Amino acid sequence: MTTKTSTRCRITKSDLKVPFVEVSLSNGERLELYDTEGPQGCDVQTGLPKRRKEWIAEREARGDQCFTQLHYARKNIITPEMRFVAIRENVDPEFVRTEIASGRAIIPANKRHLELEPMIIGRKFLCKVNANIGNSAVHSSIDDEVEKMRWSVRWGADTLMDLSTGERIKETREWIIRNCPVPVGTVPIYEALERVNGRPEKLDIELFLDVLAEQAEQGVDYFTIHSGVRLPYIPMTAKRTTGIVSRGGSIMAKWCLSHHKENFLYTEFDRICDLLRKYDVSFSLGDGLRPGCLADANDEAQFAELETLGELTHHAWERDCQVMIEGPGHVPLHKIDENMEKQLRICQEAPFYTLGPLVIDISPGYDHIASAIGAAVIGSQGCAMLCYVTPKEHLGLPNKEDVKQGLMAYKIAAHAANVAKGHPGAQDRDDALSRARFEFRWEDQFNLALAPQTARDYHDQTLPAQAAKTAHFCSMCGPRFCSMAITQQIRDMVDDKASPSTLAQDLRDKSEEFRAAGGSIYVEPKPR
Amino acid sequence: MTTKTSTRCRITKSDLKVPFVEVSLSNGERLELYDTEGPQGCDVQTGLPKRRKEWIAEREARGDQCFTQLHYARKNIITPEMRFVAIRENVDPEFVRTEIASGRAIIPANKRHLELEPMIIGRKFLCKVNANIGNSAVHSSIDDEVEKMRWSVRWGADTLMDLSTGERIKETREWIIRNCPVPVGTVPIYEALERVNGRPEKLDIELFLDVLAEQAEQGVDYFTIHSGVRLPYIPMTAKRTTGIVSRGGSIMAKWCLSHHKENFLYTEFDRICDLLRKYDVSFSLGDGLRPGCLADANDEAQFAELETLGELTHHAWERDCQVMIEGPGHVPLHKIDENMEKQLRICQEAPFYTLGPLVIDISPGYDHIASAIGAAVIGSQGCAMLCYVTPKEHLGLPNKEDVKQGLMAYKIAAHAANVAKGHPGAQDRDDALSRARFEFRWEDQFNLALAPQTARDYHDQTLPAQAAKTAHFCSMCGPRFCSMAITQQIRDMVDDKASPSTLAQDLRDKSEEFRAAGGSIYVEPKPR
């Protein structure tokens, strides 16, 4: 038996160059893992290769007016974006097309984001994770933000939201998009608010459409738009424990109160659709009235807004726009079902995109864990994308380590959801890692892990020697007694096809052999 | 309005000196939190005060032969231990008695653990968390182990398992128990194995009973005993991906195979019961055949053993012994229900005590999170105690920071379960923290958090100034715009008792006022 090396490397597949991480195990097994990290080694000034350039050029050349994937799907066209995600998800392209045509899935892919590696969001596909980045009032530089973006996709972020609110907001976004392999989302009302010097009552639809047009032209793939914060719902938040916690929601609530008028993002929704369809910017209909604590979960205000989001989903679909729906927030475990059930029904199965939810409120400093619990549960029920929460949630601005912690918690939640949904092949990686664990193939375990180097480092803290990585024991039980080894003996004893009575006889025979052989279960590992 | 200080301090209640942490908030509110940390400032050499000394002396003086809480409960006696936990859990002592009498709850309380602050494990009580400590092959000292114990109870461990396998195992345990305010559990087969130089086939019931007697005499409160690993079940593990992963399970499997005999912990179960009832050591019936990976979850071997644990529960109850049942391990989210449902039915509602379960296998380095997800879900379904998992699981030995991380993840899971079960008052702390969050009472938030200092430190990383702790904004949105503040305005506008039409009129009026006042929502915080 030749011993192979355990390796992990990037590959691409098909003429579309769909990226994967290939893990080759020391026993000859091979796994292809979904890869979000994008092309490596590109200069920030140049940006990533413009892989969608020709695809879009063709559509513009033939004079298309509506560029949405929904539009093409409805016309029975399988776009290169659909082919790309079909290979990524290992499904049939026609399946991708029908899911998009029905509105159950979206491919956020602005025609100006040529650097994008297309991905799909929908509950019949792999559950996705979003990471938020963005400078805030305090500090930031463009290099910092590009580095944060790269760091996020390195740890598996499927999309990124740029929530910058400070200066040079447009320039920062430009650099991020030109270097970003995953869809970029924004909350355009933040930039609109900057333009009116932070005075919500000065906002209007013309200004807002200007901001949308500029951001769409830059290549933003999806916009959070708080069209569901309707005037009559605002008083419903008065008795809440934490009122309105969405910044976008509170901006629009303030506008509505100042003017005593209906939200212009609601009344002018069709104009917004008309702009978005020209670029194929997807709607992420914001939940401006989401609960900010357990006490406010599933209340009248939240579900009233959800009804409106359902109505707007229908409008957007009529105008060929792609839509997903944002959800809470803070929801105790026993109230999660109702969110998912209502969202699917009211929004006609448009993809759901939740922030956690946190299942308790008393864990500042550990809210990535409290929310990953809710995220895993709602993901297993069909939530299509999970917006991460970092350990700094409610306390401060996340640094790089916080971003990694948040992403790890959410990659776990999303994977747990995929396994629970019975997503084809989702458990293959777990099974491969478990076999490696049973056979003490340490490097294979590390290479299959969500964070290989972290796993390797933790292992080395207790047993640093390289020899320990090929040892047939681990630091928990030590070399003297290992529970895994005995199973190997049991396995050796039991013939796969034996009848129960033969098994019993076998066990008696083997019991003799075992004792005769000295009854030792620990076998000295051979040097490789 | 006088401004009070936010404080957090220890108090005790009643003549029984039941410990609580009292949090006094700056708005005058006051909360009592469950406290596991035990009496402070005691010298290790002296040990904790022997608070149960007189309770036990009385029972011994009157010549009791059976000391179990189950025995007393069945005789309609409400013991001081029952009164103690009733105050701790804020329930009626008679309710505690009936739950114990029915076997649905246990108070692990060896009559020789006089330092114990009694606690109860049962699904109608607060969900509990166990932390494992113990030296292993490599390093350890007694001081280290006592310090680990103190560190664990500081972060909320409700019970501790001492899994030491190295030298001076008995002496280490003595120091731990004399200084430990929470129940201590062990897996006595580990010590028994040490006595036969690590050769399982040399084990027998006499040796095992000797070990039990010594440990019981020291004051161990519960024993994990793998009586369910029956000979006919062992071949069922042969086709598993990871075979037998429980050390106790594999020790007994090896014994059974070597002798081709039925497990002596099963055949001699009644003798074990007779010993345990003399001290009131509770059974923690071990799941020696628990799955070690997703692929093996809910399989024939696991559920065959569970049937036997159900049978043994009945036996133990007949002999007045208290029992809980250990459970998995590794279970994907969609297969957790079946575990809880089967355990409740087969074991006639005896408390369930699970290890996680981990809901995925690919997260080495982050298994505390992957398992906290499973723990929260099974806890919400009625699992009574959750054995924690640290970030080092599957990789190495946990250090102090790992222990804290594991406990935080599990305190979150247990609290999420309590809230989801609708446990009376469980959400009060969340609601108090949310109100503090809404009102920017930062010190109140910290004092209500699971880890106050961690929350404070994280906050300080972004906004170190003391002034920021009284500021009416946080670092996420900055001082310029804060979503919480607008709700306060909405609240001011809406009269609690107004009819909908009045509300609408109010809104119009207030809208005018608001604009007239400059439309600013940010109010400069007054120095306190």
Q: What would you say this structure looks like, in words?
A:
Two copies of one chain form a homodimer. The first copy, chain A, is of the alpha/beta class and about 525 residues long. Chain A has an eight-stranded parallel beta barrel, surrounded by six helices. In chain A, strands 1-2-3 form a three-stranded antiparallel sheet. In chain A, helix 6 links the parallel strand 7 and strand 8. Chain A is globular, with a radius of gyration of 26 Å. At the A-B interface, helix 9, helix 14, helix 15, helix 16 and helix 17 of A face helix 9, helix 14, helix 15, helix 16 and helix 17 of B.
Q: What is the assembly state of the chains in this entry?
A: homodimer
Strand order of the largest sheet of chain A: 6-7-8-9-10-11-12-13
Q: Helix/strand-derived class of chain A? A: alpha/beta
So what's the overall shape of chain A? Answer: globular
Largest sheet of chain A, described in full?
Answer: 8 strands, parallel, barrel
Number of helices of chain A: 20
Alpha carbon gyration radius of chain A:
26 Å
Structure summary, number of beta strands of chain A? 13
Give the CA-CA distance, first to last residue of chain A: 11 Å
Low-confidence stretches of chain A: 495-500, 519-528
Helix content of chain A: 40-55%
Largest interface: A-B, 127 and 128 residues
The whole-number mean of residue pLDDT values of chain A reads 90
- Note the beta-strand portion of chain A: 5-15%
Write the layout of secondary structure elements.
2 copies of one chain form a homodimer.
Chain A: E1 7-13, E2 18-24, E3 30-34, H1 53-61, H2 69-74, H3 80-89, H4 93-101, E4 105-106, E5 121-122, E6 128-133, H5 142-154, E7 159-162, H6 169-178, E8 184-186, H7 188-195, H8 205-218, E9 222-225, H9 247-259, H10 264-267, H11 269-279, E10 282-285, H12 300-318, E11 323-327, H13 336-346, E12 352-355, H14 367-380, E13 385-387, H15 400-420, H16 428-438, H17 442-448, H18 452-462, H19 483-493, H20 500-516
Parallel strand pairs in A: 6-7, 6-13, 7-8, 8-9, 9-10, 10-11, 11-12, 12-13
Antiparallel strand pairs in A: 1-2, 2-3, 4-5
Helix pairs in contact in A: 3-4, 5-6, 7-8, 8-11, 14-15, 16-17, 17-18
